[in-house]
Amino acid sequence: MLFNSIDFLVFLPIVFLLYWKVFQKNLRLQNALILVSSYIFYGWWDWRFLSLILFSTIVDFFIGQFIFISESNKKRKMLLITSLLVNLGLLGVFKYYNFFLENFVQAFSFFGRSISFSSLKIILPVGISFYTFQTLSFTIDIYKKKIKPSYNFLSFAAFVSFFPQLVAGPIERASQLLPQFSKSRNFDYFKSVDGLRQILWGFFKKIVIADTCATYANLIFNNYQEYTGLSLFLGAIFFAFQIYGDFSGYSDIAIGTSRLFGFNLMQNFNFPYFSRDIAEFWRRWHISLSTWFRDYVYIPLGGSKGGNFNKIRNVFIIFLVSGFWHGANWTFIAWGALNALYFLPIFLLKRNRLNIDSVALNRKIPSFKEFFQIMFTFLIVVIAWIFFRSVDIKAALNFIYLMFSHLFDKSSYVQVLDLFYFKVEPLFLIIFSVFILLEWNGRQFNYGIEKFLYNKKRILRLSSYYIFLTIIFYFLINGEEQEFIYFQF
Amino acid sequence: MNKFIKSIISFLTPILSCLFIFFIIITVISQVLVRESKQYQFDKNIEFLFLGDSHIAHAVIDSLIPNSLNLSKISEPYYYTYHKLKFITRKSRIKKILLGYSYHNFSSYYDEFINGNLSTVMPHKLFFCLDFSEQLRILNWNRKKLLLVLKNIFLSSYHQFFNLEKEKNDYWFYDGYYNTFVDAKVDSINIQDRIIFQFYKEEKVGSFANLNIVYLNKIIDLCQEKNIEIDFIITPLHPLYVKIIPNIFKSKLNEFIVKKNMNLIDLEDLNLSDSCYVPDGDHVTIKGAEITTRVLIRKLY
Question: Taking the model in full, what pTM does it have?
Answer without folding.
Answer: 0.74
